[in-house]
């Protein structure tokens, strides 16, 4: 009798603790060996969420491990050296990539991408870059997609090159440094705006006539009206 256990682990960082340990406990297999094999198989995807399937033979007390692939977005973010994608794509740009890096991810995810050719798969991944706030070749991914379709990068794609040249690496480092500064400015402006709004809220609530402001009970005379009456008597 076999039992299949599907888990999500951090590549190269699996431990005997949750979720792995509890899921495999009582199955009669060596959890330490399972952990070791998973970390060996996922070492190239260190730190990323990786789907793992462990098939346990309950009678033979043996196991088989199958490692899946992280989402395309996770692989692209790893190539972009970004911890997470943008929460506001188009407004916040977190990093940048070059075409060879898209080719690299396209080859890794070749079996699951919908594109039939490598060029179509690169275009598909450029679309993913837009959703996570990553530039492609220094441009908005939509512009890069137009250039890919027009054949601007056909030579690189035909070569299937996945490594960056020294010049490309230098360009990318400069671009990422500039984007990091720009992102910091955007986030600082957002924080300042939020703090200003928070400070203005109590003032607006206390203003005369503002919703929630205290109103004088019907039939009573306000202090201002009393003062005006006294002045008229004089």
Write a structural description:
This protein is an alpha+beta fold and 234 residues long. It has helices at 20-24, 31-41, 72-79, 99-108, 118-132, 141-150, 154-159, 166-206, 223-233, and strands spanning 2-10, 49-57, 62-67, 95-97, 134-136. The longest helix is centred in the last third of the chain and has 41 residues, at 166-206.
The end-to-end span amounts to 104 Å
Average pLDDT metric:
87
Number of domains: 2
Q: How many strands, what sense, and barrel or not for the largest sheet?
A: 3 strands, antiparallel
Annotated CATH architecture of the largest domain: Orthogonal Bundle
CATH class of the largest domain: Mainly Alpha
The CATH superfamily of the largest domain is known as Ribosomal protein L11/L12, C-terminal domain
How are the elements arranged and paired?
Blueprint: E1 2-10, H1 20-24, H2 31-41, E2 49-57, E3 62-67, H3 72-79, E4 95-97, H4 99-108, H5 118-132, E5 134-136, H6 141-150, H7 154-159, H8 166-206, H9 223-233
Parallel strand pairs: 4-5
Antiparallel strand pairs: 1-2, 2-3
Helix pairs in contact: 3-5, 4-5, 5-6
Short synopsis of the structure:
With 234 residues, the protein is an alpha+beta fold.
Features:
Ribosomal protein L11, N-terminal domain; flat; Arc Repressor Mutant, subunit A; 234 residues; two-stranded parallel ribbon; 3-stranded antiparallel sheet
């Amino acid at each position: 009798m076999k039992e299949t256990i599907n888990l999500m682990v951090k590549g190269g960082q699996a431990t005997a603790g949750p979720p792995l340990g509890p899921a495999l406990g009582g199955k009669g297999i060596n959890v330490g060996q399972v952990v070791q094999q998973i970390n060996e198989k996922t070492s190239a995807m260190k730190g990323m969420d990786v789907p793992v399937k462990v098939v346990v033979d309950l009678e033979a007390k043996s196991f088989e491990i199958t490692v899946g692939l992280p989402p395309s977005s996770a692989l692209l973010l790893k190539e972009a050296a970004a911890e997470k994608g943008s929460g506001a794509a188009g407004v916040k740009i977190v990093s940048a990539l070059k075409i060879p890096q898209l080719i690299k991810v396209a080859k890794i995810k070749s079996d699951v991408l919908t594109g039939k050719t490598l060029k179509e798969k690169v275009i598909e991944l450029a679309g993913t870059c837009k959703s996570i706030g990553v530039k492609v070749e220094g441009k908005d991914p939509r512009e890069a997609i137009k250039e890919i379709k027009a054949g601007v990068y056909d030579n690189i794609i035909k070569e299937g090159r996945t490594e960056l040249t020294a010049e490309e690496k230098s360009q990318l480092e400069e671009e990422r440094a500039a984007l990091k500064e720009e992102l910091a400015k955007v986030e600082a402006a957002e924080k300042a705006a939020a703090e200003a709004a928070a400070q203005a809220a109590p003032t607006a609530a206390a203003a005369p006539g503002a919703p929630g402001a205290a109103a004088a009970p019907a039939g009573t005379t306000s202090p201002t009206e009393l003062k005006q009456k006294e002045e008229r008597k004089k």
